[in-house]
Amino acid sequence: MLRAASLCVLWASFVLGVPVTKERQKVLLVSFDGFRWDYDHDVDTPNLDQMAKDGVKAQYVTPPYLTITSPTHFTLLTGRYIENHGVIHNMWFNTTTSEKKTYYSTQFVNEWWDNGTLPIWITAQKQGLKAGSLHFPGTASSYQGQVAMMREVEPFLYDYKNETDWHENTDKVMGWFRDQDLDFVSLYFGEPDGTGHKYGPDSPERREMVKQVDRTVGYIRDSAERHGLTKRLNIIITADHGMTTVFRGPQVEQITLSKIPGFRFSDVSFQLLDYGPSGMLLPKPGKLETVYKALKGAHPHLHVYKKEEMPEHLRFSKNDRILPIVLWTDPGYVLNGFFPVQFNKGEHGFDNQEMDMKPFFRAVGPAFHRNLVVGPFETVNIYPLMCHLLGIEPELNDGGNVNFWKNGFIGLSAVAGFLLLVFIVTISHSFLKRKQKNQRQF
């Protein structure tokens, strides 16, 4: 009895203060690409600050490895680590023909995305809800023959910085919620990633872009109110990864594979290099050990692993698409193939345990506590959270670990009411038993 009562008190404490609503909850997932967890520390962000006061703020969240755009966004949509959902890179590639496709072209390679794991759009629709997506990675694909009910794929050579477009896209999504009665929408903004790459995460340009993001956060909340959605819409704002400064200058020993003694590109049949700090190699038959031994320990800031020996925390080995040799660098260094071709001042793609790779997290709405700061958690947990808010059964996923749910930052009023009722019944039952026992003694 005591244990049951304590459990009821615990869960009731999680959900106290949540407004009572009988209407179905709606969810908007927003991603600001490359928004590092601490980007609001050196910029005045009144709208993000207000969102934290009105809702929940995480200290930071941990993305999966590989910390690049498409793979980490698909984790947000599926709750699966990258090795499990199979979208292992921004680039589709064919090891037989050595063909590669750019980030944008890969959005339209259906089999790259439709690989057995369903994004939340399709799961929601299979269970009778309505879903949409605007510019979110993976939107262009169909999954088991289905697409998001409402969708818009970003145009070719899209201007990610245009603030007017950001407002128009926000209003379009709010219109979907109101006029089409959608239950879930994912919305993507390509900044501050682009600015962080070009100018570096410590630049004044990045700080100005964070101000633009903050203004847009305010616009998103204002638009929700103008469309009459505030009492039903839960807004989750996060990102795919962080950003770190790239080391340049004569004092920096660049990592260029062609200059490593004993390594020959003639021993490799396919390579995926020159893409930030990460790379993969497919050695020719019989050359695996030769390539591996030549690269292992060749540079103090280069990590080289056979896929089956990858560090457990990266969870980046158990997929046929991952090539036999995986390489990545320490923060600040990039990986070059034949010669340096990368000139970004900021990069991501590093080990997901590096603090500069951590994104931010905010959530506000009728299902969330107010003014609550929670500890760090992995982004695989955002998917089961959204399924819970929508009232749908999630697909197989890697989220929902104990530490995440112990944060206790959500709770629907129906659950609160039920647990409160159980608590009252439990206490009443205990009181009556004690009263009857006392009467028998007299």
From TrEMBL:
Residues 1-17 form the signal peptide. Pfam families: Phosphodiest (PF01663). It comes from the Eukaryota. Coiled coil: none annotated. The chain crosses the membrane at residues 409-432. Keywords: Membrane, Signal, Transmembrane, Transmembrane helix. The keyword Transmembrane helix applies. The keyword Transmembrane helix applies. CDD domains: Enpp. This is Ectonucleotide pyrophosphatase/phosphodiesterase 7. It comes from Fundulus heteroclitus.
